[in-house]
User: What shape does this take?
Amino acid sequence: MKDWSIEGMEKSDEYILGDKANIAVIGGGPTGSFFSIFALKMAKMVGKELNITIFEPKDFTKDGPGGCNKCGGIISELLVQTLAVEGINLPDAVVRRGINSYKLHTSQGDTSIATPYFEKTIATVYRGGGPKGMIEQGKESFDKFLLGLAVKEGAVHKPLRIDKIEYKNKKPVLFSQKHEVVEADLVVGAFGVKGGTAKIFEGLGFGYKEPRTVTAAIAEINMGDDIVGRYFGNSIHLFFIPDKNVKFAAMIPKGSYVTLCILGKDINPGTVNDFLGASVVKRVVPDVELDRIECRCLPKMNIGAPVKPFTDRIVMCGDAGSTRLFKDGLSAAYLTGKTAAKTAVFQGVSEQHFRKHYYPVYKSIVIDNAYGKRLYSIIDISRKSNIFTKGMLEVIRKEQQDSHSRKVLSLILWDMFTGNERYKNIFPKIFDVRMNCNLWKEVAKTLVY
Ligand SMILES: Cc1cc2nc3c(=O)[nH]c(=O)nc-3n(C[C@H](O)[C@H](O)[C@H](O)COP(=O)(O)OP(=O)(O)OC[C@H]3O[C@@H](n4cnc5c(N)ncnc54)[C@H](O)[C@@H]3O)c2cc1C
Assistant: This one.
């Protein structure tokens, strides 16, 4: 990828946001809300007033796909803690369950990985009102909560879909259903990958291209409090099944429902039923009556960041830009939203400002994902080998039973799937000598017995 950070000098005053500058945020998901919250807080710090309008047509109180931004809804420990430090504490009404362990299910057996940290801080949430038909009093969606915070901070929410952008007087002008809605000093693209909005920006010709995506599957299964408590507890259940199209799947308990997310290749409307019929799944999950699946979708997932995410007065953040591979997209929404806000408020909104102050963070996510890809290929190879899977399970079991063990393999898997750690920091751990000795010893035992 080209290193934009070394090109050009910063432009002058024309691109510094003045008092009452107009910022248009396209998308009121987590990225749009994080950007707005931080831009408004930072502007107050320097005595500036900003007019931020968030364009978001979805009603996040609605049940079913119409009110939802379609995701597993796992908020990593790191993000829960980072937000708390920022003064954003997730209220009980938003959190559906606290998670303290992962259970790993494979064709060769199962094992648990408990949180290596003392606090139970992974949270599960719904992005909208909840699965179709679910009415739960006193609960709130994550996206509604964040959008509410942005509005409290001073942003204006307009329930409009932006469908066209033109330049007038060198500034972007936004349209919705043929009506001009704002001439902006800055446009923040926080529209994700699920709605086709990228085409509008591709059409502006500054080099932005829609991120590369894969299709995932999500299903919400109504199992009832009792079964969720008994079978799932406070654990996320991860499945590595020997199906070449399923990279991995997670079942995430939330109240009386379980959210099933499947990532892989050739995901289609039949993938969820096929997965629930797999022998590994039938062994650990009670028989699911398929009519208990009240909500299904096949959302797109960003797996490749666009090379050029900004130009003068336009910046792309969150899923519309770069996000973390296969996990923790909400942390990337926070990181890119906040960095774009910092750049806009304290530096400026020209292409050069974004190149120098926003792009290094954007690129660090892209580089980290390159390590992630390598780690997932190792997991893929081991998933397909019964001998290796058995050895890996045995090492994890021993690590979990021994309170003095360094738990290297457990930690690698915990950090891979919780989003707690950057892939780059996990990568060196796969060369840990003692862990590798233990692993190969267990693999050898499997071969002998
Ligand atoms: C199957 C799956 C499971 C996932 N699980 C997790 C997980 O457990 N934890 C995690 O951290 N991440 C997870 N992610 C990633 C996470 O969902 C995304 O990274 C996150 O939603 C990105 O937030 P965003 O605000 O950038 O985009 P989005 O959440 O997609 O929000 C974009 C918003 O923009 C609005 N919009 C779009 N076009 C327009 C327009 N033209 N005008 C106005 N508004 C518009 C949309 O209505 C939407 O509300 C998962 C993703 C997938 C696909």
In short: The CA atoms of residues 165 and 174 lie 5 Å apart. Residues 26-32, 55-58, 69, 71-74, 161-162, 190-192, 194-195, 197, 216, 218, 261, 299, 301, 318-319, 323, 328-330, 333 surround flavin-adenine dinucleotide (CB under 6 Å). The radius of gyration is 23 Å. The chain has a mean pLDDT of 92.
